[in-house]
Amino acid sequence: APAPAPDSARPSPAVAKRPPMPPKRHENPGTPGGAGGGEQDFMSDLMKALQKKRGNVS
Fold this sequence. Notes:
It comes from Macaca mulatta. The chain is an all-alpha fold. It has one domain (4-57). The chain is built from five helices and no strands.
C-alpha cells in the first residue's frame, strides 16, 4: 500500500500545472492550445518578440 501512494502523488503536480494553461489560451486565442500547450504559447511569445524587434529595427 505505501508504494502506490507516492506514485499517485507524482501525477498530482503535473495535473496541478495544467490549470494555468487555459488563461494563456485566453490571452492568445489565435494559438491552438491543444497542439503544444505551454510550449506553443512560449513559442508564440518568442515569435511576437522577434517580430517587434525586427519591426523596430526596420
